Amino acid sequence: MATVEVTFTPLPAHVRTARLVATAVARRSGVDESLLDEVRLAVGEACSRAVEAHQRHCPAEPVRIEMTDQDQRFVVTVSDHAPTGPARPASPATDTGSPGGAGTDGAGRDGASRDGMEHDGLDHDGIGYEAIGHDGESAIPAGFGLAVISGLAEDVRVLSTSSGVSVRMSWPSTAAAS
Amino acid sequence: MDLKLGHYNKDGIEVVDVEGEIDVYTALRLRELLIDLVNKNNYQLVVNMEKVEFLDSTGLGVLVGGLKRVRAHDGSLDLVCTQERILKIFRITGLTKVFGIHNTVDEAIAAKKSEK
Asked: How many domains in chain A?
């Protein structure tokens, strides 16, 4: 099992670097070229929501990404350490399954449940809204980024605990572990 | 690459050229440009995304925000995009039903004029 870990200060400017690294590691892990755009976008979305959460709660704490090969799959886990309050028993984890409707519903539910604990989830521009300004209008609902991830990744699991949220995504890979 | 923005008026319609990556870091600049154009009474907008290399949900939020602003003045915001990897994001999120998406700037302008 080969593992690459990246930690970065929760600044929007570093999200691009994170997704470039993830794309490079995915390519090296044997993820098909046709899937690399999906990896790039999904990892970027996960990092964006983690950056937002850290900026809100713990701007000194780094965001962590772990990339590894497991059983012929390239697995990316983006973890934040922003407190979310008591874990919600209704959504301790969600396996959103295949791309499309069911997955989108699952992630939307998870994103909504988490964000709902911290703010109203309706009156801003969505993920990263603090970085792009807040004018009180409703453009994109909270949890939208997670919905995008679910539409992209074959397998997405969102684990929300009192100590933070982990978004685990995986794609098929062909490279032998090294 | 970074985000490059430009805009020009053609046949009374403001065309915004976007090049590069629209993400959580760069979307602020696009948002400010769209707000500035609306504040200067430009309510018929076409955003040309043919040279956009990356678009995330933050960028989508900015485009939806722009659409809401122009609609508040009975305007519209259409997109020019033929790149499959960008169109896919609009399809996943259902936003293909919200935006008019065209193949060329001229086609977008013609569509807007026919709506008037």
From this structure: 1
Q: Which residues of chain A make contact with B61, given a CB cutoff of 8 A?
A: 125-129, 132, 139-140, 144
> Residue A41 falls within a domain, yes or no?
yes
Quick one: which of A54, A78, A55 has its CA closest to A5? A78
Using one digit for the tens of pLDDT, what is the confidence trace for B68-103? Answer: 999 999 999 999 999 999 999 999 999 999 999 999
Termini Cα distance of chain B: 37
Domains of chain B: total: 1
In a domain, A159, yes or no: yes
Q: What is the ipTM of this complex?
A: 0.89
What is the Cα–Cα distance from A141 to A138, expressed in whole angstroms?
7
Please indicate, yes or no, if residue A177 is contained in any of the structural domains.
no
Domain that holds residue B42: 4-109
CB contact under 8 A, A126 and B28: no
Q: Nearest by CB to B27, which of A37, A41, A132? A: A132
pTM for this entry = 0.80
Cβ pairs bridging A and B (under 8 Å)? 90
